[in-house]
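User: I'll paste a sequence; please echo it back and then give the predicted structure.

Assistant: Echoing your sequence first, then the prediction.
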Amino acid sequence: MKNLIVIIITLFFFMGQPPTAKDKPLIVLELFTSQGCSSCMPADELLKAVKDNYGDEIIVLSYHVDYWSYIGWKDPFSQKNFSQKQRLYGNKFKSRSIYTPQVVINGREHFVGSNQSIMNHKLAHYGKEKAEAEIKLHNLKQNGETWSFQYSINGNIDNKRLRVALLIKHRETVVKRGENSNRILQNANIVVKETYIDLAESFGNSHITIPNIVKPEDELYLIGLIENENFDIVGGTQVNL
């Protein structure tokens, strides 16, 4: 028995502490999509497949833009500020126009969200890069129409901010008009609310409001992302609510 204890202690010594989020790859996929866009459905399906295959190893967010909502079908998840977010990325990438379906990976580059070969290539590439910072969300509590939380960050927070997003894991929608008329669309990891926190400290308290579009039966994620002033994502985490 003593020999077994010595072996366990020796292994622990040489193996060191368990890896933290900073030792693991960071992959964050942001899909800009719309239920009013006929070419978006393959990208929605690919995003869901990636999420199903990789689980919590990859952080996936689906932003529904509003500029398709005037062409026959108003996407119930679309928000003007999500379209503006995409325009800010467009400025960063020096793009003349924005488009759907678009995937932005780690805030650093973009590609057509339905292109599986490029998706696989980028996942392999970014799967070799480690996060620069570690973010934890804890002490989560629901109080009526809000979720409160605490955050703690391990890493440099100079000129960084924390983005916290509330997501619906899955929703099925029957589209009655527009380019996807009479189709049943499957959307995953739908962003329904987000808030930004300028980081003066490595820890703090905050909250996020639950919008009316969230149903009692919906399963939810809370996602925290650390990004720099150039929108590069340097750390991330996700929590089941």
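The CA atoms of residues 135 and 153 lie 5 Å apart. Helices lie at 2-15, 41-54, 80-92, 116-126.
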